[in-house]
Amino acid sequence: MQTIALKTPRGRRFIGENCPVFIIAEMSGNHNQSYARALRIIDAAAAAGADAIKLQTYTPDTITIDSENKYFQIKGSKLWSGQSLYKLYQQAYTPWAWQPRLKQYAENKGILWFSTPFDSTAVDFLEKMKVQLYKVASHEIIDIPLLKRIGQTHKPVLISRGMASIADIRLAIRTLRNNGAPSVAVLHCVSAYPALLSHMNLTTIPDIVKKFKVISGLSDHSPGKTAAIAAVALGASIIEKHLTLNRASGGPDAAFSLNSEEFKDMVKSIRETEQALGRPFYGARENESVDLKFRKSLFAVENIREGELITSKNVRSIRPGYGLHPKYLDQVIGTMASSNIKRGTPLSWNLIKR
After folding, report:
1. How many whole angstroms separate alpha carbon 17 and alpha carbon 274?
2. In this structure, which topology does domain 12-58+93-277 adopt according to CATH?
3. Where are the beta strands (DSSP E) in 137-179?
């Protein structure tokens, strides 16, 4: 399995198995068309310990057309029903004039900046900004012309799988690789806003790794941090989560975003989960060695005279652990004491006539 290597403002960073989880703060439309608010979201991401801040690069006209006919009306969404696609994207898009300045600001704050392009003009724009990696949104996983253009940048690519079938995912990976993408990561994602925990099916994450031989992780639209922490425990190498300053401020993605303190708490929990997972280990660690003495061993539980037969009555396996290992009890029973043994003495081989 490939590892993604990046040059971040904090130094060399690797994404993949046995690497620290790569945590992405998704700004999306949570800036509410305020440049100052966008800067504060970057501040919050950096303060929380995120590795990267991600935006989306499109305009209403590059992602759809301004039409009020029935095909362009949003229906069935808890958050956006009743709007046209064009009007939603007018609210949610990030002005392109901001993006070079936001990238520089993020890098000055010590975190990586990258984006999700939605058409080839966005890829061209981001290439001029010298981004280090790309994200493919879940709905765009079937946009083969876009994937070809992204692959041609020869940059690593993260894909949200969303509603994609196995065949869709295989085609997307193949398209990106055949066009020059050096490495591809596939993020599990539920394309519902917000996503219910009961619909998350997080065991898909290790299955993605096994089935497609790629790095995997989670692009999370569920409330809270539960899914993200569980994903890390299941082997996720990447966690992407929407960040807002305050859900009460509204915005197209606020309902399934974490606020600043919640995001910071999620990052802390992820790092603690990584520590707790560790690596396979057996035996006693240094700070456990003192407890070895609280394990059982063989002790004289009665006074035993020299030459007296050792029996299950005068020798037993008890705590603490200063005597012979309990596995030797059967060998000891029926032998004779080589000297007087006082009650409470840990048994050793030199006390036994063998």
Report:
1. 12
2. TIM Barrel (3.20.20)
3. 157-160
